[in-house]
Amino acid sequence: AVHHQLKGGKKSVPEQPALEQQVAQVQPEAGRYAEAIARLERDPLESAAAALMLADLMIAQGRLDEAATLLAGGRERYPDDGRFPALLARTRLIAGRAEEARWLLDAARGAHEREIEIWLAEGDLARYEGDASAALTAYRRALQLANENPFAWFGMGVVASEREHVRPAREALGEDLRYDPHRPGFRGELGTLETFAYNPDDTVSTPS
């Protein structure tokens, strides 16, 4: 699923913790998507966090157009929350509509320059476009805002790996595992790097 942060960022309407706690009990990461979506769809824009979670689940199920519609509505209802244009841009990128993703991020950047998700999406889009330098700049900006964000470190590591810069790639991918050691995609990317570098034994240790 496309990631997003449920904490931080400005909101024009207060969150409702009770709803978030109720949805969290569904444990969507365990694969119980239908139940989680059913609860969230009762009022998908009741809170920004609920809308973002529902959009993330829809994306995981391949329901990209529905997710985009929801995120567009969230962008209007919560104009101060930069996570909506960021995730909407990611949704368009997944659908192969990079030009739309670029337009969305260009339009949102000025108002949400301190929203980490904007910079993560910028990095992913730049990497998709083959602009490694711009991708690294965006991921570094994300790290300036939140140095412990594992997705920014992951992006840095992937770009370095794609450029065959083994040492910086290993360091960055080690950092993402330090902050999120249980995400399979992170360890898989490090394993791919170590296989390329002919050093697979290093993949078994977990950074502390």
Q: Can you lay out the helices and strands and say which pair or pack?
A:
Elements: H1 17-24, H2 33-40, H3 48-60, H4 64-77, H5 83-94, H6 98-109, H7 116-128, H8 132-145, H9 150-162, H10 166-179, H11 184-196
Helix pairs in contact: 2-3, 3-4, 3-5, 4-5, 5-6, 5-7, 6-7, 7-8, 7-9, 8-9, 9-10, 10-11
Can you tell me about this structure?
This protein has 208 residues and is mostly helical. The protein has eleven helices and no strands. Helix 2 (33-40) packs antiparallel against helix 3 and helix 10 (166-179) packs antiparallel against helix 11. The longest helix is centred in the middle third of the chain and has 14 residues, at 64-77. The chain is globular.
From the structure above, extract its key features.
11 helices; 0% strand; 64% helix; 208 residues; single chain
State the end-to-end distance. Answer: 26 Å
Number of strands: 0
Total helical elements: 11
Overall mean pLDDT: 82
Q: How much of the polypeptide forms β-strand, as a percent range?
A: under 5%
The topology string of helices and strands comes to: HHHHHHHHHHH
State the low-pLDDT regions, or none. 4-23, 203-208
Bin the helical content.
55-70%
Give a quick account of the main beta sheet: strands, pairing sense, barrel closure: none
Which term fits the overall shape? globular
Gyration radius over CA: 17 Å
How would you classify the helix and strand content by structural class?
mainly alpha
